[in-house]
Design goal:
By secondary structure, the protein is an alpha+beta fold. The protein contains 11 helices and 4 strands. The chain has 2 domains: 2-91 and 117-126, no CATH class; 132-249, Trna Endonuclease, Chain: A, domain 1 (3-Layer(aba) Sandwich).
Length: 262
Amino acid sequence: MLASELSSTPYNKAAHRRALLPKLRGRSEASIEFKHANISAALLDAGLPYIIGYKPRSNYQALLLDVITERLSPDSALLHIAEADADLPIAVPEVDDILSVLIERPVLSERPERLVSEPAAASIRLPTNYIEREARNRALGNAGELFVINFERARLIHAGKEALAARIEHTSKERGDHEGYDVLSFDADGAPRLIEVKTTKYGGETPFFISRNEVAVSEREAERYQLYRLYSFRREPRLFTLPGAISANCLLTASSFMAQPR
């Protein structure tokens, strides 16, 4: 199913679940759906996207991650599809009502402990983190920023603030990435709104990558800073916002370190 989703091939989740029932005696459709949600969480931990519609449930047994990573050899067809999809250029999607893409922000919560006490196979990883690779897709990032600019213009025009809409700036293009945000927009009262855009073609539970500078700017400019998270960008874009300091809105996990000999 994941290969079909990444390659834009139609498939039916319900039919797939029903086909599994005879092979998994004693399992209900609901339990199979729950297990798919566990698989989604394990895929994220392995650096792969998950199937949209199966919201990740992290309380899975560590053996599940072992099995997934062992099944996906470096020459796996799925990994080739994931690599191609991560690098795929994408155009700014057209939507009938751009303001309708805004949804409520998800509730911040700690990830639950796993069902077993052994380490979560954190050392077992695929050769590439495909989520990180997609995050480095500059064409995707630029398309997301342009989409947000269109959204902001529509928001301000809807509020009767055409003059403010005309002043929106694509900061990352005009001044560079060092500013710590991508778009300069405005609140309806004229106050600046500093927007950092994070875009993914994948589901809303997909983690994103943030720089030290972006975190620092969000703390220094907490009153004006907002992170805009765009997801499902390929087919049905959705957007939620995280206003204020990133550290107050997100669980931050170090993914790399800078080291010097001592």
